Amino acid sequence: MLNDDKSIQALVRLIDDPDDAIYEHVRDEIINHGPKAIPFLESSWEEDNYGLLFQSRIENLIHDIQFSSIKEELQQWINTPHKDLLTGALIIARYQYPNLDEQSVRSKIQEIRKDVWLEISERQTAYEKVRVFNKVFYGKYRFSGNSKDYHSPLNSFVNTVLETKKGNPLSLCLIYSIIAQSLDLPIYGVNLPNHFILTYLDENNINPIINTENEHGSLFYINAFSKGGIFDEAEIKQFLKGLNKPELRNYFEPCSNSAILTRMLTNLISSFQQSGSAEKVNELIELRDLFDFKV
Known about the structure:
By secondary structure, this protein is an alpha+beta fold.
């Protein structure tokens, strides 16, 4: 460990070498040390005054190490059999917020969960439970769809959505479903084109309203972007008809957590394309490409 520290310190002192070939070698060696090199880089950035080139190289190195770490963590998440949705969302959030306090995010979600838990009971119907959930989520905590600044990247990161209480359809559905599932409510994301919604699964696969078998296993659907409005399959069919889209099965049934993160990355790519952040767009595409053939 001590030898590692000395090696990193020695490499950091060579960052300002004017020879590009030497710098490239130094850069590769520092990146190979991974996140443990970051404190040494940050300390040198603050304490050593070697000029703008030195500072710029350090900033780029820190970013490259952090991006490499995010990419590795996301790949590990993809390869795990149980893909925890919140964990995946936090990995993506750390792309933009590398020093993110994950425990703070988890605590905020637990706070909302506790308030919902205090209000629901086993005696309530599925509809009543969702109405109670909506009362807490949209009433007490004032979550809402950000229609005024719809394409802002802030609408896609779980930490900023929890802070601002505003998000896009996907992020609101993500937080809603994470809390719901932790309360044993069978609420899952549905990957509609141009929109993202939730389904409340009919655990008996029977629709009590018409008393017939439910083709897609959903009791009803929830529009998290519009204060948790409840609607049915017929409205999805009408929505698809308006888009000239076929009635594919996956437009009515829950999607995988991998599909949710893929769409989150797609939303972020679109947001940063609009703001002209080409480097972020390329990196986010690189992250999204990790999901190829694994959704």
